[in-house]
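Thread amino acids onto this structure.
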């Protein structure tokens, strides 16, 4: 694991494998990385907003649980982004198939489930008159 993390911070190691690719592929990979970082930052901002601005919800500590879940998910997305960028760049340089990942599907399901839970909380509050 530490070897993988070390590679993230050592561009010389990445450039030492394979051949220099068409720069357009590397730039596209970088744009994808930045898009994932924006997603992580949006989740972190949503977590902070939930902690600061959501009113108390029907279930005790639900607001805090939502905030913590969003913050953890945002941090996970950011770390996953750099790992995905490095693995993809390595595959491009080696002329290999791009690495497959279940993470986008897991992230989509987590966000969808979180949205459904929030809808339930809002409806409970609206129907309960709270």
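Threaded sequence (130 positions):
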């Amino acid at each position: 694991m530490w070897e993988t993390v070390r590679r993230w911070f050592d561009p010389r190691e990445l450039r030492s494998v394979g051949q220099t690719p068409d720069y357009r592929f590397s730039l596209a990979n970088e744009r994808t990385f930045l898009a994932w970082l924006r997603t992580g930052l949006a989740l972190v901002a949503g977590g902070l907003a939930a902690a600061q601005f959501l009113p108390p919800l029907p279930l005790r500590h639900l607001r805090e649980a939502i905030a913590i879940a969003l913050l953890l998910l945002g941090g996970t997305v950011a770390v996953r982004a750099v790992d995905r960028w490095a693995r993809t760049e390595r595959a491009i340089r080696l002329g290999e198939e791009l690495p497959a990942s279940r993470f986008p599907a897991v992230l989509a399901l987590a966000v969808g489930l979180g949205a459904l839970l929030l809808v339930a909380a809002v409806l409970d509050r609206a129907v309960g008159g709270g």
